[in-house]
Structures are given as C-alpha cells and as structure tokens.
Design brief:
With 484 residues, the chain is an all-alpha fold. It has one domain: MFS general substrate transporter like domains (Growth Hormone, Chain: A), CATH 1.20.1250. 70% of the residues lie in helices and 1% in strands. The chain has a two-stranded antiparallel ribbon. Helix 14 runs antiparallel to helix 15. The longest helix is centred in the N-terminal third of the chain and has 29 residues. It starts with 19 loop residues before the first helix and ends in a 25-residue tail after the last helix. Pfam families: MFS_1. This is Solute carrier family 49 member A3. It is a multi-pass membrane protein. It comes from Trichechus manatus latirostris (Florida manatee). Its main location: membrane.
C-alpha cells in the first residue's frame, strides 16, 4: 500500500518549497486525507448514539418499571444485555473489523443501532402489546450487537487514517463519544421523563440520532482505509493474521496484565453508570441529582481525556499517564463508596463523581493506545477489542455480584425510590467496587512494563505529512509510485 498513489492531487514531494521531511515522507508514500475527519465524525456520532440507547433506562429505572409493569431486575437486564451480548459476539466483531474492514463494521453497526432504537419504541406505538419487555429486550440486543462493532473501532480508525502526531487525539475523540452519550442519557432521560406517560417521548427522541448516524454512515463512508497510509505503522496494520494475532496476545505478559486490569475498570465504570440511580435513591437523592452526578462524571472525564490525549500525543508517555490515572481513580472510587452511603451530602457526592470521571475516564483512550503499542504489529481491532470483551465479561460478573450483595431492609424515611419495592442496602456492594478498583490499580502499577513497539518502528521511518494537499495542485504521480 505504501507504494501506491492516492486519489487526489500530488504529495508534498511534488511541490516546490516542500520541506525535506515532507519530501522524504512523500517518497516513502505516506500521506493524510481530509476525509479522515468525516470518518471520525460519523464514528463518534454513532458511538454517542449507541451509548445513549444503552443507558437511557437506568436514570429513570423506577418510572420505566411502573410504566411497563416490570421489576427493577428486568430493567437492570435491559442494561446488562449489552455486556452479555458482547461476550459471544465480541470476537466475531473483532474479526469483522480487522478482516472485512472498518467501513463495513461501521455501516453494519449503524444499521443495527438504528433498528434497535426503533424496536424499543414499538411497545409505545401500540398499547395492545402484551409483552413490552420482549420488544425492549430485542431492541437493546440489536443495539448491543452494534456496540461490539462500534467501541472496538477508535484505535483502528486512528491507526489507519491519522498520522502519528494525531492518533491519541483522534482515538480520544472517538472513544470519549461513548461516555458523552452516557452523559446525554443521564441528563435527557430524567429531563424528558417526569411521569409514566413521558416514556414514549423519551424512546422517540433517542431514535433521531440513531437514524442520523445510520444515514451518514451509509452515505458518506466509502473506504476501509485511505489509498495511501498516513504512517509507517499504518502500512503494517493487520499485517498479522487474526488467529496468529490472538496467539501472540496470549503470550504477551504486558498485554494480559493491561487487558485484565483495564477490563475490570471498564466493568466498574459500567456498573457505576448503570446502578448510580439505585444506589443514590436509597439515601434520599432524587433522579435529577443522580443524573447530574452521572453528567459530572462524564463531563469531567471528557475534559480530562482531551487534555491527556494532547499531552500524550506530544510526549508519548503512555505508561506513566496510565499508571498515575489508575492510582487517582482508585482513590476517587474509595471516596465514592464512603460518601454515597451518607444522606444529605450533595456537594461532596458531586465533587467525588467529578473526580472519579476526571481520573478514570480520561485514561480510557490512552489505555487503548497503550494496548496497541505493547501488542504491535497485531491488528488494532484485535488488541483493543479483546480488552473490551474482557471488560464486558468482568462488567457482567461485577454487576451480578454487586446486585447480589444487596439486601432488603425496612424502608427509611429519606428513601426516594419509586419502583414499589423495599429499598436495598448497597454498602457491601460499593465497598467491593472500591476494593476491586484499588487491587487492579496496584497490580497494574507494579507489574505492567512494556516497550512502545509502534513508536519504535516509526522512529526509524519518516514523519507523516501533516496536512492533506495544497489547493491548485494537479495530479502528478509521486516519485515513489509503482505500477501494480
């Protein structure tokens, strides 16, 4: 691929006044394309929409349960199904991403996401449905299938479309679009649902971004990879076959440590966002405040990821940034476990949730880049996908254990839970969550060490061209072009 020409004007090496680095890069066949930003926009919108669909029920779990005459456990399964579906289908999604291509995975994910959003809304269109839970679960399951094709893609997109000085930032934007969707769900669901009759409005609103993402993915994405790679590492992307890559990862000690520790963190974050409303309502906090805490968690995480992504793009200090983030995350998780069990601590709860997001979510895209660095030249889809599959497995187990540890108690006077069941005691659950977070942080900090294999390869190659093309260029063949 590195020796082929692109479909646009000439490279930097063809232009008078091109810098020596650009000329050398052109001779080696590396170039970037402006349409990479379109791909990033579409994937980000799709990821955001998918996340809103995942968590749309959790902030208003009690009201949804009353509307459809369901139990809280059934409502929890509408969230948990994302984790369950991703386990058997996650490996298949990884294969699609690395073997069939990024465009196919994105378009297929967009259609599954849209159809799932429509299925969820069907029980509200016809009140004669006797089993609304079946339609809600079917829609969530389709969206869960879409998630496996969407959340594995950011590192792949960054690797094959973006130059090395923009990879961490591109990965951050696409990765953090998912928690941004969780943020919107935490804010929109309580705002839209004030009573049972508002549930149809909420389900209809969430169909709109899913439809827009589906339309853009189908109409605007035409290539799996650019005609010419943007970097030396992109030219080697997926050079290792799928099964060979799996074998290499299973023998990679650093990768296994990262996958297990960060996978547990994904599980903890998933449990936190899905169960936050139920944990807080027992202590007298209303749905609106639980939604605010979830919003602060995501918002601060997004801001932290933006700053950390720009920093790591310049310094390449992946390991240092991740280890420090892990330690601070465990401290914030312990603080949440304590404060969340105290009534009337709105300010401190808001601060703790903000810090939890700032430290925990901000390292997610950097950890994905680190997974690629320690496993290169294994394909980016396999390297990051397996981390998420492990995260979903651990997340499912963590959620099951956390809910199993709860016990019914006499309803306290300050409870605001509205689902008609006796309030639950979450003390043991949140303490276990904090303990798991602390253990994973210690294991990662002590035992994780790795060289940056992709950075080392690129250090011996030329830098990427930083800009796309110059207006007015004709279409000459670059000096490195070869005829197939």
């Amino acid at each position: 691929m590195a020796g082929t020409t692109g479909d646009g004007p000439g490279t930097a090496g063809d232009r008078p006044g091109a810098t020596p680095a650009q000329s050398l890069s052109a001779l080696r066949g590396y170039r970037v394309y402006a349409r990479r930003w379109v791909f990033l926009l579409v994937l980000s919108l799709l990821s955001c929409s998918n996340a809103t669909l995942w968590l749309s029920f959790a902030p208003v779990a009690d009201t949804v349960a009353k509307r459809f005459s369901l139990s809280i456990k059934q409502i929890n399964w509408l969230t948990l199904v994302y984790l369950v579906v991703s386990i058997p289908f996650g490996v298949a999604a990884i294969w699609v991403l690395d073997s069939v291509g990024l465009r196919v995975a994105t378009v297929l994910g967009a259609w599954l996401n849209f159809l799932g959003s429509v299925f969820r809304a069907l029980p509200c269109m016809d009140l004669s449905f006797r089993t609304p839970f079946a339609f809600l679960m079917a829609g969530q399951s389709l969206c869960a299938l879409a998630q496996t094709l969407v959340v594995f893609s950011p590192a792949k997109l960054a690797a094959v479309w973006f130059p090395e000085h923009q990879r961490a930032t591109a990965n951050m934007i696409a990765t953090m679009s998912n928690p941004l969707g969780i943020l919107l769900a935490n804010v929109l669901s309580p705002a839209l649902v004030q009573e049972e009759d508002d549930i149809p409005l909420m389900l209809g609103v969430y169909v709109i971004p899913a439809g827009v993402a589906c339309l853009l993915a189908t109409a605007c994405l035409w290539e799996n990879v650019p005609p010419t790679p943007p970097s030396a590492a992109a030219a080697s992307s997926t050079s290792v076959k799928f099964l060979d890559g799996l074998k290499l990862l299973m023998r990679n000690k650093a990768y296994i440590i990262l996958a297990l520790c960060f996978g547990a963190s994904i599980g903890i974050f998933s449990s936190f966002t899905a169960l936050l409303e139920q944990i807080l309502c027992v202590k007298g906090y209303y749905n609106d405040f639980a939604g605010l805490c979830g919003a602060l968690f995501i918002m601060c995480g997004f801001l932290g990821a933006l700053g950390l992504g720009l920093y790591v793009d310049r310094t390449k200090n992946f390991t240092e940034a991740t280890k420090i983030g892990f330690c601070l995350t465990s401290l914030a998780c312990v603080a949440f476990a304590v404060v969340s069990q105290l009534p009337g601590q709105t300010i401190w709860l808001a601060v703790v949730c903000s810090l939890f997001g700032l430290f925990g979510l901000s390292i997610a895209p950097i950890t994905m880049e680190l997974a690629v660095e320690c496993s290169f030249p294994v394909g980016e889809g396999i390297a990051t996908g397996l981390v998420f599959v492990l995260g979903q497995i651990e997340g499912m187990l963590i959620m099951v254990v956390l809910t199993a540890l709860t016990v019914h108690r006499a309803e306290p006077s300050f409870s605001t839970c509205q689902h008609g069941e006796a309030p639950l005691d979450w003390t043991a659950s949140v303490l276990l969550m904090a303990s798991l977070c602390a253990v994973c942080s210690c294991v990662f900090v002590i035992f994780f060490h790795t060289p940056y294999r992709r950075v080392q390869l690129e250090a011996s190659a030329s830098p990427s061209i930083q800009e796309d093309y110059v207006q007015g260029d004709t279409n000459p063949e670059p000096a490195s072009a070869t005829t197939p």
